[in-house]
# Entry
Amino acid sequence: MFGAGRGGARRSSGFSLLEILMVMAIIAIASLLAVAVLTGGIDGLRLRSSAKEIASNLRYTRAQALSTGQPQKFVIDPRAHTWRTVGDRHGEIPRSLGILFTGTRGLQARAGEGAILFFPDGASTGGRVQLQAGKAAWNVDVAWLTGEVTLKRGEADR
# Structure
């Protein structure tokens, strides 16, 4: 018999737990790298997350106008990378992202700021907030007639 003469048990074929764990770790790392490449990396994640946050707060501002019966304003400051709205809600946009605002000039409280006003009937002054990271961009559009807020992937206007 093989191995019986030496006092040891026969070694069975297969993989050790350590080998299996190493292969799983390599697969996990490769998957993370692939996801980062396909989504544009960390800036891509920041871009999408920030666009969703702005869209959500624009919808909140519209809902507040509808529920209170009073006009409500969403203000964005591209230079300071900040936004603010009803109820002392405010936020920051990562400095690594570019910001373009298109909207009504007459609503600017200060030079460089942009604003979208929502009316009690749901309509708005309309506008677009575009966030950019490299060539990638997300557009947050507000329809003037309905006040509907939509979020779409786009290309940087620069």
Summary: The longest strand covers residues 127-133. The chain has a mean pLDDT of 89. The chain is about 30% helix and 30% strand.
